[in-house]
Design brief:
single chain; 5 strands; 5-stranded antiparallel β-sheet; 4 helices; alpha+beta
């Protein structure tokens, strides 16, 4: 019984303590023990700021992933695999620290960017491959991409 009284007293102390403050405006909270905001205005403002922050962070990450994907598409062309120089990929803007996932296998660590992956063969040679389990590019995208590469004189 005494243990339950101590727990109840601790809950009461927390409920009316100065520790419980609004996550947005920092005013003291009263009422429900799990309350985080003093009113709906603070709640909406807090979540709005958090969404804007996440959007900004995601924009940077997605830009880096998109650039990696563009470089891989450009150097691979219609091929399913190829070996390239690390410095050549870096010169084109490839960021080796950005990937969507990675897996370990006999080759080492395979770093994925959507449906492409790469792994280091040597210190300076990188092998790029198209994931055989991935869905192929739609025909319309492939035609447009090939036309773009021809226009730039790559093919």
């Amino acid at each position: 019984m005494e243990k339950e009284n101590k727990q109840f007293q601790r809950a009461l102390d927390y409920r009316y303590s100065a520790e419980r403050i609004c996550a947005c405006c920092k005013k003291q909270l009263f009422g429900r023990i799990d309350k985080r905001y003093c009113d709906y205005t603070c709640k909406n403002q807090f979540h709005s700021v958090m969404r804007a922050y996440r959007r900004e962070v995601n924009k940077e990450v997605n830009a880096s992933l998109d650039r990696n994907y563009q470089v891989m598409m450009e150097v691979m062309g219609p091929e399913e695999k190829g070996v390239f120089n690390r410095t050549e990929l870096q010169r084109k803007g490839f960021d080796f620290s950005s990937c969507t996932s990675y897996k370990r296998n006999a080759f080492g660590i395979m770093n994925y960017v959507y449906n492409y992956y790469w792994f280091a063969r040597t210190n300076n040679k990188i092998e790029l491959r198209l994931d055989p389990k991935a869905q192929p590019l739609p025909e319309m995208v492939l035609r447009r991409w090939m036309a773009d590469l021809r226009a730039r004189g790559i093919i």
